[in-house]
Design goal:
Elements (H helix, E strand, L loop, with lengths): L1 E6 L11 E9 L5 E4 L5 E8 L2 E5 L2 E3 L6 E4 L5 E5 L6 E8 L1 H10 L6 E2 L5 H12 L5 H26 L3 H11 L7 H8 L3 H12 L3 H19 L4 H7 L5 H12 L3 H7 L5
Antiparallel strand pairs: 1-2, 2-9, 3-8, 4-7, 4-9, 5-6, 5-8, 7-10
Helix pairs in contact: 1-3, 2-3, 4-6, 4-7, 7-10, 8-9
Length: 271
């Protein structure tokens, strides 16, 4: 484990609107782990390579190469690097009323991770300035505040232009895989979130679990095939990845109150 660190903790003043506290680059290994109780600091960390885990505010996130994760004042957290693919990352820590205002203005309260946001050039330029520190802390803190603001503005702009909410991403993924025999673990791997977090986020937004939504969408697809295709019920069951025709029959009747055959024969009067 190696780190290149610039530390300014001894310059911190509680009455200053912005304090830069630390910045650096971490070349992590499988032993890298940080756990903090609520502290007076803000931070964002850009991942050059590797992957790891961040547990914060009830969320279990998996930052990987190209991502940025955020730490916020007063929020306990724990993060660690993957043993097989450890992080290499560049980061900066700061605090003060200006820091709090910037985070509040540009990040939603429960957002701690942004995917595919390359801020490496901005972070490297900031770190180079901090490495050249020659004793003028007030000026250095002011210049760092400007750099942090520019980075947050860039992240906010990128997030607004191409980031959908997590429940929307889950829904879109399910819609694209309705006819497949999918498992929630596949979605967890695709979106890099834990099973419980995905379920809770989706249920909070749509009122049902991802599995319930998938079942509903399979039934809706079955209705369309029954009404508008010439496929047999057995073929429809296979097309929608039901284990067999009997299981499809049971699921369909449970959801609609009628059998697939009756729906096909009288469906125009049922929808």
């Amino acid at each position: 484990m190696q780190e290149k660190i610039c530390s300014f903790w001894n310059y911190e003043r509680k009455d200053r609107p912005f304090n830069v506290l630390m910045a650096g680059v971490s070349y992590c290994d499988g032993t890298y782990r940080i756990e903090r109780k609520p502290e007076n600091l803000y931070s964002f960390e850009y991942i050059y390579s590797g992957r790891g885990t961040l547990v914060i505010d009830g969320q279990r996130l998996e930052p990987r190469a190209g991502d940025v994760y955020f730490l916020k004042r007063g929020v306990p957290h724990c993060y660690w690097s993957d043993e097989g693919e450890p992080w290499t990352k560049i980061w900066v820590c700061f605090n003060g009323l200006m820091a709090e205002a910037m985070f509040s203005a540009y990040l939603e309260r429960n957002v701690y991770l942004m995917r595919d946001c390359d801020i490496s050039a901005q972070m490297e330029a900031l770190l180079a300035k901090l490495e050249a520190f020659a004793g003028e802390y007030e000026q250095t803190a002011d210049e760092t505040a400007v750099a942090v603001l520019e980075i947050l503005q860039k992240l906010h702009s990128q997030g607004r232009s191409h980031t959908r909410t997590l429940p929307e991403q889950i829904k879109e993924w399910i819609d694209l895989h309705v006819e497949e025999n999918v498992r929630l673990e596949q979605l967890c791997e695709e979106l890099h979130y834990s099973r419980n977090h995905l379920i809770n986020q989706f249920r909070n937004r749509y009122g049902i679990t991802p599995y319930q939504y998938l079942r509903e969408q399979k039934i809706e697809a079955a209705k369309r095939y029954l009404l508008y295709s010439g496929m047999s019920i057995q073929e429809i069951a296979a097309r929608l990845s039901y284990t067999d025709e009997n299981y499809f029959h049971s699921c369909f009747k449970e959801a609609t109150g009628v059998t697939p055959g009756n729906f096909r024969n009288f469906g125009d009067r049922m929808i």
